[in-house]
Amino acid sequence: MAEMPIQWRTSMQEKLPPEAATLLQKQKAKYNKDLEDVRRRCRDLAHSTPQFDDADYQWAWLIVNTRSFYWDYPVQPQSQPSAAKKQKRIAKAPLSREDSMCLCPFLDYLNHSGTDDACNVTYDASGYTLTTSKTHKQNEELHRSSAQASTDELRWLYPEGNRTERIELDRFILPRLSSEQKASLEEVDLLGNYVLDHESTCFRTQAALRIILLPEQKWRDFAAGKDDGHADQRRVNELCAEVLNSAIDDAVTMRLTSKSWNINDTEDSSRLYQRWEQIRNGLIAELKRIGYKYEKSL
Description:
Elements: H1 10-13, H2 18-46, H3 54-67, E1 69-70, H4 81-92, E2 101-102, E3 111-113, E4 120-124, E5 127-131, E6 143-145, H5 151-157, E7 166-168, H6 170-173, H7 179-187, E8 195-197, H8 203-213, H9 216-223, H10 233-263, H11 267-289
């Protein structure tokens, strides 16, 4: 668990990529709320200051919050009155996702992976089923699928396994938008959350670039799906290249800075260096895909 940013010193947490930093802030907020709830409950029960070590609580909290599975408590047999009453209560007021998590021994040993040969996990009233997608050799490690998770979510909340690519571009696009353009994008739910995934820049990014370049009706037709945008793609790619170059400049700087941290021989800085290098390479690959080249020194 020591490799998770929530346990890093503040100076290292401040160097995280933007999406990872956002995930960390959400995780910290949830942890602090849960810790205070536990302290309050202990005080109510014991009428005194709770006697437990914060480090031990954080270890247990991280286990539960990174190794749990969703399970919505199917109907229990009527021979179990308490369970039946509980199910009747749940039927009236369904549990939230946070209250529908469970630990599943042995299955929670599996690391995450975004590759096609990862195992699929499903559940029903009888429990969980793990289905492999290929024949495995004896002693070969099995991975559970994490296809919907971003690179930063996997790298920082689930620090193991292969990664799927997702690079946040908001801070390189939003400053280019006027207040009026931001308002127009917000009207159609296209403001923010601009990313580069493993294939290309997302539809939201393409729409945001078009509102900068094109007449209003043109970009609105694209946003509504009435125009495939092909006729304007060359102009859009030119602006996209500017955005990508700015993002690469930032990634190159952070990677070089991370390299100096890495000289100090800390595992945390090594992970940061690797992530910034991965971001840089992903951005350069997209720049090349749309017909441009990064001209500066790497």
